[in-house]
Specification:
Blueprint (H helix, E strand, L loop, with lengths): L4 E5 L5 H12 L4 H9 L7 H15 L5 E5 L2 E11 L4 E9 L8 H15 L4 E4 L6 H9 L15 H5 L9
Parallel strand pairs: 4-5
Antiparallel strand pairs: 1-2, 2-3, 3-4
Helix pairs in contact: 1-3
Amino acid sequence: MPDNAFLRVVVPEDHAVIADITVRAFVQVSIDAHIERRYGLLNDTSWGERKAKAVLGEIGANPEGCFAALLGDKVVGYITTSVDEEAGIGRIINLAVDPECHGQGLGKRLLCCAFDYFRKRGVPYYRIETTTDNEVGQALYPRCGFNEITRQIIYFMSADEAAEWTYPAEKA
């Protein structure tokens, strides 16, 4: 990691930059981005707007468990987390590094920061999910100790596409 890099808890002044990083980092791998490429905007909102709003919601829900990576005074990445106390699982919800800053060890450092946060809370298990087209994540997560458990397929359709599968209501 570069000498001028450091990590800290996300602060409200980071939100706009985090929203921008979110869109640039997830454009090729977001499920909703794939849906939008096929179906267009959903309800007049872009996948990026919805994704950025979700990330900011994660920060609001667990501000002490969300961390920013900075190069000098510029935010260039972040990680959001949550903890399922009942199951004892620390979940890494989103991890993003500005694409221009890939390859500098920032993602690994953000993961380690989340691991430290979970350890301090006594959380025994950690979870992260990624899509099959996220080559960066698929390379990084096993290097950081994660074990692949399963793969999931996402299906999607419009109401118009579902119309042909609608059966007439049964007569009373």
